[in-house]
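Reading a protein record of the kind used here takes only a little practice. Each token is a code from a learned vocabulary of local backbone shapes. With that in mind, consider the following protein and its fold in token form:
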Amino acid sequence: MVMNQEKTKVKTSDAVAVYNTIKALRIGTLPKEDRFSILRAAKALRTVATSFDDFLKDAQERLKPEGFDALADKARAFDTLTDQEKAEVNRRLGDYQKDVDDCVKGELEREVEIEALPAIAEETLSEIAAANTGLDVQTLMLMEDLFSHDATA
């Protein structure tokens, strides 16, 4: 039994972004230790990411305005609507999305405590970037920040 496990703080938005990225990574070419580190990192971030996802789904469902289903039907037939109807659909869907965004914004900015992520060498992150060409630079930089926190310690 491990006592006194090291913790670190991370913004919910960062945890969600890195977790979603890790889930899609191709890591088969990495050394076994690095693959294990990636999977341990996913475990540490999963709770935050799934908790936020549940909160987001709840907000999306519970903040639906009256008549949302009819509005969604109109949106699906958008090309057949008049300009006035299109404007109304856009306005109402925009208001709904703003309500959802406003509701979850504070949760995304909140710092949460998680198990410290395992250190991953810069070379390994370069290999991950090479094997996963769709990764954006911002997420790679965030991963580097989160995974290198104790690499020099």
Observations:
- The chain has one domain: 7-147.
- Residues 7-147 form one domain.
